[in-house]
Design goal:
Number of strands: 8
Strand content: 35-45%
Structural class: alpha+beta
Number of helices: 1
Oligomer: single chain
Order of helices and strands: EEEEEEEEH
Length: 71
């Protein structure tokens, strides 16, 4: 598992990607919201598989983090 950065002290796996698989406890960012996986999942995003951790992420902060991950 690759963790490229942290948000609110949580190691984030990545921005949500439908081609990836996620395990219980993984953290991802989807539409500017930090989520923690509550059941193993993959495919289209389903909010029922995730707990909202923080919905206060700033777009600029996300752009910076995404840029970092892409390098």
């Amino acid at each position: 598992t690759y963790y490229g950065y942290t948000v609110d002290g949580h190691a984030v796996k990545d921005f949500y990607d439908e081609s990836s698989s996620y395990l219980i406890g993984d953290y991802i960012v989807y539409n500017g919201i930090l989520y923690q996986c509550k059941e193993n999942t993959s495919g289209a995003f389903n909010v029922d598989h995730w707990n909202v951790i923080s919905n206060k992420l700033q777009n600029q902060e996300l752009d910076t983090r995404k840029s970092y991950l892409e390098h």
